[in-house]
Design goal:
With 219 residues, the protein is of the alpha+beta class. It has two domains: 144 residues, Sandwich (Jelly Rolls); 66 residues, Arc Repressor Mutant, subunit A (Orthogonal Bundle), CATH 1.10.10.10. 37% of the residues lie in helices and 25% in strands. The chain contains seven helices and eleven strands.
């Protein structure tokens, strides 16, 4: 637990909470830990979950496959981030997407229903964590709206420009790395991989950008 404190302090859920109280939260919410190998599923579409998931190490994709196996990546979860919180409250519907480890990962599970009830221990951090959870959900909604902005563009080039421009703004630099390989980027933007690779090559030839694997420079 202690070795993950620095990671957990970056999570929106624990904003304004001391290290000692973070440990107390894990005890109060009956936290458990589990390790996953690359390719293993944390949860699958159609399941019901009762825990907020926090990624302590590794990486996870939130994704969905249609009947024919076509994949769409909703988002990438990186170390220290939370996922599954939208479905964890008692009475919520089944999850709509899969959560799969894209590298060897460690996940913490926190019982959200204990968070939503009055704490018998009168924990001073209880209301702070509830408020932080609300802010986190708002942040997630903004990210989803940003993705909708990308994928609502009409052409593959427009989707690439929208996504890459946003990455440059987020990093504050025209040179940056993205968290996806080519297939994953195509799945995230809901485009054909070959068509996307073709478009990237054209944009490079036209002097709009340079790239090497997942490293990009906008010109």
């Amino acid at each position: 637990m202690k070795k993950y404190i620095d990671i957990l302090k970056r999570n929106h859920l624990f904003s304004g909470v001391s290290e000692e109280n973070i440990e107390a939260i894990f005890s109060c919410l009956s936290a458990t830990f589990k390790e996953y190998k690359k390719g293993e599923y944390i949860f699958r579409q159609g399941e019901h979950i009762e825990n907020i998931c926090i990624l302590l190490s590794g990486s996870v994709h939130i994704q969905s496959d249609d009947y024919w196996g076509n994949r769409s990546i909703v988002s990438e979860v990186t170390s220290g981030e939370m996922f599954g919180e939208s479905y964890a409250v008692h009475g919520s519907s089944a999850v709509l997407n899969d959560a799969v480890a894209t590298s060897d990962s460690t996940v913490a599970f926190l019982n959200v229903n204990r968070l939503m009830t009055v704490c018998s221990n009168s924990c001073v951090f209880h209301s702070t964590v509830i408020k932080n959870l609300l802010f986190s959900l708002t942040h997630k909604n903004r990210n989803l709206m940003q993705k909708l902005t990308h994928i609502s563009k009409r052409t593959t080039r427009e989707k690439l420009i929208s996504y890459l421009s946003n990455q440059a703004k987020l990093t504050g630099s025209n040179s940056f790395s993205i968290p996806f390989n080519r297939q994953q980027l195509a799945d995230f933007l809901s485009v054909d991989r070959s068509a996307m690779s073709n478009e990237l090559s054209k944009m490079k030839t036209e002097g709009l950008l340079n790239f090497d694997k997942n490293n990009f420079t906008l010109l």
